[in-house]
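We were asked to recover a plausible sequence for a given structure. The inputs and outputs are reproduced exactly as logged, with field labels preserved.

PROBLEM: sequence recovery
POSITIONS: 349
GIVEN STRUCTURE:
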């Protein structure tokens, strides 16, 4: 099955029109975020409701560089001109360097997660309290972005991104290259998460999820384990955000606030938070359903989307991946069980 999916994804540029290929690349960006949520929530038990923050940090780091590159040497991005900004803000200047911008795609979300994780997990904040805190962080981040029109583009965000390191994003050939970049990044984070899950750190993470106090009594520090994995999850979200910018050409507060953060989590819940493949499949399926339902039922698609989530939570609490695993397990047991012995014949008296 994995091989079939991989072949279909590789052949997608030849099978799909440019618009559908762009949508698929966008869903794969969300799949990269889902891999990080699987690590943090599925294996670590950290209910992360604020992944949009890290998605946005990586996206804005990339978007700032691309907007400066589009504007040309010494010129200002278009939204700054419209906002009356006359000189480039000092915060933006380092992002003219592509190496610096690429480094910030990972460094900004990772450092933010390390600081937040150190402060929160040291105080043994977990469960619903951590979820609310992370969601509040996403809300505060959006308020900050919207309030700084001349620095961040305000409500509109960074729009009209035309080039990506020399690639014309309006050209179908450029879009195909960006698609393969996204696919390669998804494969890389998938392998990284797979390896981490089988490492000592991954086993400790599961132990912390199932019995944090017992792990502490054994001499390990659960806060360190959770902070490290939370930072890895944030880095993956940052990479996804950076790739989202050339794929869509726009990044604004509407892409990374409270609602988008919730959607990232719901998608993983539908696919199956305990399964790496389920998390990726859930992200793609959720956004595929959103697009399909919105095209077919433009006035009622949000209700149908909610009904899909409720149905999965009621009848498949471990997600579609858990449902599939249960079905395969039942099938294997039936095949392995010996055939029933024939009933003994009755002897006439």
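RECOVERED SEQUENCE:
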């Amino acid at each position: 099955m994995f091989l079939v999916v991989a072949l279909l994804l590789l052949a997608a540029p030849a099978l799909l029109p440019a618009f559908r290929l762009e949508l698929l690349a966008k869903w794969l960006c969300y799949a990269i975020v889902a891999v990080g949520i699987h690590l943090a929530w599925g294996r670590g038990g950290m209910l992360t409701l604020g992944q949009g923050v890290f998605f946005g940090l990586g996206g804005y780091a990339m978007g700032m560089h691309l907007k400066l590159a589009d504007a040309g040497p010494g010129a200002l991005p278009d939204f700054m001109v419209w906002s009356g900004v006359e000189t480039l803000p000092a915060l933006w200047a380092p992002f003219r360097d592509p190496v610096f911008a690429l480094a910030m795609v990972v460094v900004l979300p990772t450092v933010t997660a390390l600081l937040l994780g150190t402060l929160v997990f040291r105080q043994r904040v977990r469960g619903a309290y951590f979820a609310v805190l992370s969601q509040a962080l996403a809300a505060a981040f959006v308020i900050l972005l919207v309030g700084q029109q001349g620095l961040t583009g305000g409500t509109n965000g960074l729009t009209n991104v035309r080039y990506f390191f020399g690639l014309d994003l309006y050209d179908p050939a450029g879009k195909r290259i960006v698609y393969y970049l996204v696919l390669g990044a998804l494969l890389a984070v998938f392998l990284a998460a797979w390896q981490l899950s089988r490492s000592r750190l991954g086993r400790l993470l599961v132990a912390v999820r199932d019995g944090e106090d017992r792990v502490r009594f054994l001499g390990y520090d659960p806060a360190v384990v959770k902070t490290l994995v939370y930072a890895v999850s944030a880095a993956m979200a940052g990479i996804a955000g950076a790739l989202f910018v050339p794929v869509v050409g726009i990044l604004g507060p509407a892409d990374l606030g409270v609602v988008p953060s919730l959607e990232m989590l719901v998608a993983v819940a539908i696919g199956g938070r305990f399964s790496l493949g389920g998390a990726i499949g859930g992200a793609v399926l959720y956004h595929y359903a959103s697009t399909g339902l919105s095209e077919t039922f433009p006035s009622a698609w949000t209700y149908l989307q909610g009904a899909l989530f409720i149905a999965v939570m009621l009848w498949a609490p471990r997600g579609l991946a858990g449902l599939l695993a249960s079905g395969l397990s039942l099938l294997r047991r039936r095949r392995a069980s010996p055939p029933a012995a024939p009933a003994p014949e009755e002897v006439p008296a």
